[in-house]
Amino acid sequence: MSREFQKDLEKDNFSREEIEKRVARSRERITGAPVVILLCLEMSEMDTYPDRRRNKAEYMIAAQSASNAGMQLLLAAHAEGLGGVWVCSPMFAQETVQKALALSKAWEPQAMFLLGYPVEIPALRERKNIEDISIFI
């Protein structure tokens, strides 16, 4: 994944120094986590339709279900006193991840969860007011 990340940053015209810094930080986050969980999407149990529109919707349903499972994982980790980070870098290197972990092509890597006991608890970020991001009917 590091090589693919590096290639993408080169295409984005980042400096050599910035590329090395970002790739090193990414690698350290993954290798430094006591537990890494890979979340994959798999379509074999999903419905299929004769048209593209509904198949696309079914794929989105599977992606939303996988995302919901990921959020539940983070909530369960938090309840146990663990810290967790959700990273989507496997989506940018799906074939590499499948090959490295000997996964079936049907298992599409979606996210990684880096779990462990937090060194420090970050300050809460300011949130938008619910009225600013919602419409109530």
Short structural summary:
This protein is 48% helix and 15% strand.
Features:
137 residues; alpha+beta; NADH Oxidase; three-stranded antiparallel beta sheet; 3 strands; globular
Q: Rg to the nearest angstrom?
A: 18 Å
**Helix segment tally:** 5
Overall shape: globular
- Widest sheet: strand ordering: 1-3-2
**What is the first-to-last residue Cα distance?**
45 Å
Per the CATH scheme, the topology name of the largest domain is: NADH Oxidase
Order of helices and strands: HHEHEHEH
User: Mind telling me the CATH class of the largest domain?
Assistant: Alpha Beta
Q: Main β-sheet: number of strands, strand sense, barrel status?
A: 3 strands, antiparallel
How many β-strand stretches?
3
The CATH superfamily of the largest domain appears as: NADH Oxidase
Low-confidence stretches: none
| Structure class | alpha+beta
Note down, in words, how this protein is organized.
By secondary structure, this protein is of the alpha+beta class. The chain has two domains: 1-32, no CATH class; 34-118, NADH Oxidase, CATH 3.40.109.10. The chain contains five helices and three strands; from the N terminus they run ααβαβαβα. The longest helix has 28 residues, at 52-79. The chain is globular, with a radius of gyration of 18 Å.
Sequence-ordered SSE layout with sheet pairings:
Layout: H1 2-11, H2 16-32, E1 35-41, H3 52-79, E2 83-87, H4 94-100, E3 108-116, H5 130-133
Antiparallel strand pairs: 1-3, 2-3
Helix pairs in contact: 1-2
